[in-house]
Predict the structure.
Amino acid sequence: MTNTIEADTLRQWLEARQPVTVLDVRSDEDRAQWAIPGSVHINAYDALRAGEPGGLAAAALPADRPVVTVCNAGRVSQTAATILAERGFDARSLVGGMKAWSLAWNVAEVPLADADVHVIQVRRTGKGCLSYVVGSGSDAIVIDPSVAPDVYVDLARRGGWTIRYVLETHIHADHLSRATDLAGRAGAALLLPAQQRAKFPFTAVGDGEHIRVGDATLEVRHTPGHTDESTSYLLNEAAVFTGDTLFTNGVGRPDLLAGAEAARQRARVLFQSLTRLRQLPPDVLVLPAHTSEPIAFDGRPITARVKEVATWLSHWIASEPAFVDRVTSQLPPPPPNFVRIVELNEAGEFAGADAADLEAGANRCAVR
Ligand SMILES: [Fe+2]
């Protein structure tokens, strides 16, 4: 019997900085798509499938800590763990492989000057989805939830908050939204930017409105372009939740579910939205809904100040035609399964769908 480890246990080990060697045995190609931060890579995939130990027979690995072997779905990694166990290592195979790892998450606290307002960044480490818990007084609001509702309920409880609102920046295309589920579970109001796409009950928020949670005030700023309804939320003039409109090193792609001409039109609208975001005070923290790199268990929030973002964004938005060309010509392939994911997010529930299967793979919501 091969020893195994669940993705959530490995997640906890990494969060606790417990010594462990994570050994990725996938192909170079799969590895290049996404990986577990800090993992070691030995491309032994073809060898293992052929019943050969490949590079694992002689790989030099630290003997004083467990080795967790990782493949795509958790089968080939069992063979790898068996080989390493025979060599005397405490080897365990990651159950479900990278597919299961897709749901692993970690947190980082976002430092704010106001001691009465707390922002916790919840990160899906593999996919790079970023969501937020904003807590103040006895209440909290969750923005763009992308992991299991229990995670947010637990974080809120630890902060001494009750989740009053669940808020989305837009209808997502790269992950299944947990917003309806979380709002139901927490008995919270579900808030979405005004649009006609969602087929479930929600409260619409529009440009200029304010959402208050304790000492935190979120000002609603409609910032279309990535999608028509895409909206940003300015928190106490200190931070701005930009969804997939603006990232720390890129902007939202305007082309998903749009033809070539519609994408160019959306790019022009995105240009206007980014021009407005660029005018926010220089020290405001940009808090996006994604990052394009796997996220380390380092407790460091993924954020940048408006003035830091401006170092490249100002150049991007110097000319509208050049911007439109740039964001419609340098596009990565669309996120895997995005048509189905959008359908499910518009329906507001995905019971019965295989979330791990639909969401597997790297995030591709950005143009850089
Ligand atoms: Fe998006």
The chain has twelve helices and 20 strands. The mean pLDDT is 94. Residues 239 and 285 are 4 Å apart (CA to CA).
